[in-house]
Amino acid sequence: MHKPVGRFAPTPSGYLHFGSLVAALASYLDARAQGGQWLVRMEDLDPPREVAGAADAILRTLEAYGFEWDGPVLYQSQRHAAYQAVIDQWLAAGLAYACTCSRKTLEAFNGVYPGLCRDAGHPWQGAAIRLRVPQLRYGFDDRLQGHFEQHLGHDVGDFVIRRRDGLYAYQLAVVLDDALQGVTDVVRGADLLGSTPRQLYLQELLGVPAPRYLHVPLITQPDGHKLGKRYRSAPVQAQYASAVLIRALRALGQRPEPALEHETPHTLLGWARAHWAAHAIPRVASLAEAQLA
């Protein structure tokens, strides 16, 4: 049996905050506890939303918290040619098409694309590119959240794989890069649970195996918003690494000994690898940060 390959794929739209740290820790421990590899990939697909220096700061913070990854960091900004090659193939095969619908036009459809441009034959240049979806249900058994499925036609509709401004969509990039890197186990926040059926369809089209999925609870603020740059979530600080790691472990249902708070991050992660219990993670979609103090 091949050893598992896990990954952490942050977006450099801000610095590493507690919610991202919890996701990083879960993916790291799940891979390392099985003797597997752990990769870091920078999802720098959206330059207008990036914060200058954030990508480097995220890597330095991971290092300060004791994380070690295998191989070089993969930057999605260096993968545009690969994404475009697949889109070109699908356009030529009629699997994808150009869409000129404005956001205002689509507001009335509650996030499900109604197929307005499906057979319009618009030029590809200067338009968004959508992928045709089948009228089928795609589902999977998440290791934590249980069975989840969507009817792509009814619940999503044809979805964007390249935006009108030329930027590549997360759904396409993540599937291509997971396949490229041989990722076998995806551990990430539960806010991405609803993206998975689209990714299963993309994997089917590309002829690549689907990884196992584990969607951990999202860490939220008191108002219910997830932690993130948009809501000014505070970045984690290197000088408090061990204390913050203890808190993150408890958020994941692990039971670190209080004395470990006085150990180095390296020692603490060693303990966590040896005692990792994925089945102990709370089987919920979100946890309020205030409850984890």
Automatic annotation (TrEMBL):
It comes from the Bacteria. Binds 1 zinc ion per subunit. It is an enzyme of class 6 (ligase). Its cofactor is Zn(2+). One of its GO terms (molecular function) is ligase activity. A motif ('HIGH' region) lies at residues 10-20. The keyword Ligase applies. A motif ('KMSKS' region) lies at residues 226-230. The keyword Nucleotide-binding applies. Zn(2+) binds at C99, C101, Y113, C117. Pfam families: tRNA-synt_1c. L-glutamate binds at R7, F8, A9, P10, T11, E43, Y170, R188. Catalyzes the tRNA-independent activation of glutamate in presence of ATP and the subsequent transfer of glutamate onto a tRNA(Asp). Glutamate is transferred on the 2-amino-5-(4,5-dihydroxy-2-cyclopenten-1-yl) moiety of the queuosine in the wobble position of the QUC anticodon. Belongs to the class-I aminoacyl-tRNA synthetase family. GluQ subfamily. This is Glutamyl-Q tRNA(Asp) synthetase. It comes from Pseudomonas typographi. The gene is gluQ.
